[in-house]
Design a protein that fits this description.
Shape of chain A: globular
CATH class of the largest domain in chain B: Alpha Beta
Strand content of chain B: 25-35%
CATH topology of the largest domain in chain B: Rossmann fold
Number of domains of chain B: 2
Number of helices of chain A: 12
Number of strands of chain A: 2
Oligomer: heterodimer
Distance between the termini of chain A: 16 Å
Strand order of the largest sheet of chain B: 6-7-8-3-9-10
Bound molecules: adenosine-5'-triphosphate, magnesium ion
Chain lengths: 321, 247
Amino acid sequence: MGKITKIGWVTAIGMVALAVLPPFFLMTGQAFYLDLATRLVILAIAAVSLNLILGFGGMVSFGHAAFIGLGAYAVGIPAHHATWGGFDLIASYNGLLHLALAIGISALFALITGAISLRTKGVYFIMITMAFGQMAFFLFQSLDVYNGDDGLTIDVRSELPWINLDEPLQLYGLAYVSLVVAMLLTRMIVNSRFGMVLQGAKGNDERMVTLGFNTYFYRLTAYVISGAMCGYSGFLLGNFTTFISPDMMHWTRSGELMFMVILGGASTMFGPVLGSSVFILVEELFSHFTVFWHLPFGLMLIGVVLFIRGGLMGLFKGKRG
Amino acid sequence: MTPMLQVANLRKSFGGVVATDDVNLDVIKGEIHGIIGPNGAGKTTLISQLSGALKPDAGAITLAGKDITHTPAYKRARLGITRSFQITSLVMEMTVLDNIALAVQAQDGTSFRFVKPAHKISHIREKATEYLRQVGLRRRANDLTSSLSHGEHRQMEIALALASEAELMLLDEPMAGLGPEESKNLTEFLLKLKGSRTILLIEHDMDAVFALADRISVLVYGRVIATGPADEIRNNRDVRNAYLGEE
Ligand SMILES: Nc1ncnc2c1ncn2[C@@H]1O[C@H](COP(=O)(O)OP(=O)(O)OP(=O)(O)O)[C@@H](O)[C@H]1O
Ligand SMILES: [Mg+2]
């Protein structure tokens, strides 16, 4: 106790860097890098949310991008109606309404799809979550009112008290604080009595059932929390890109999220953040040279999975464990 | 005396194999009821149906007068049934203490709590530590379960059965893989529990069974071929032919 582990150091340095560097970029006139960092931090929140169920609950969800999309459309659709009329019930630029919709609808979607998906295990779970994700994708693709495939442009960002999301630095600040909160929340849940049951069910479901735990119910609860958190990241992403389309929900996006979590190190606090950082930076770097950047990426993941136990964070593990 | 557990006409088959063939069985409150039988007789299959891990094809299971044939496994645990596993079943990536604490937590009924760290719930940690002390694993409390020896894993199985505070313990070959000394210790330990818990004990170690069991049922090819007081079973000709003779 008291002594800070290597993982602790990496986490601290990483989080400080994310707090300090982006404002620095802006001040030195490199606004592009602030944009990059904003996208990175928002996707990191999504990855942290996925890690709650994947890393700590053993639920390999291949449809998590659907929640990002739902959160983003929870901004886009009310804003669209506020601009163009119709659907008076929700037509609004009010950010708190958008937030409530993003979290509420994501949680509901998680509850319904989770209740069904969690009846299955292993590969079937992966496939059924992917199928639900694609269902959301095709649903929004077919909604002509919201331009289907072509997507929606958000003309006015969510209006929030105190914060002006049109200000890139304020948007970044909100995203960064949200990431910290998401990480602390995840840590709190994971270490709680609920979290112990969740991790126990990941390690040995049979034993947990024998002890009297309805593991299905615990998993479902975690799935809903994760979905809601991921929907929140969609709320931020919609406000950041101001353009949303069904493509955000495509299964390849879900795959990227999984990639980030596994690359960085599932079931660690900072792993998903490290994973999304590496992902965004490598994507940025390679896409300058070649459109075939997915290949080196895939090879990298295979390398990490094969040679480093516990992802990149595994490199910083001490002798213990 | 009304039996604590009643099994009536239980049947279970896997494809062509009839693993449980019309089993009838009573377990009386407070007794240690031994079940013996050769490999593949269907002993584990029987326990799995009693614990709810497997669904029987036919028949009924009654616990203290209540039909639990279709009660899900996690609810049976709450009704006071627990089991141990012939093949050790623990959360290997957690510490020894965390494993036992989960059993205590289940009894505490406070698992749907999200805020306070589980490690800080002192009454649960203390209780779990006490169970570890009872089985002699206290000094291993903070070690990773996967790092323990086979014998220690078997002790953890017992600690978990104790910690779940079940009135009815279904023990599936608790001595499996233990040396003579360890078996003797465990036998003495179970002897001390006698009376305070009801135990259905599956065991290949005949010395242990005859030392512990009040009554014994003999299972062969999924059928109960004899039930009775331990002495009677020891001298039963059919049993000797079918099973004990093989030893
Ligand atoms: N899940 C299963 N699928 C198919 N057959 C099974 C299954 N479980 C058990 N069996 C079969 O049912 C029969 C009874 O097996 P069981 O494990 O209950 O025996 P047992 O008395 O516990 O044996 P042992 O002394 O070796 O532990 C065996 O023939 C076994 O092969
Ligand atoms: Mg067996």
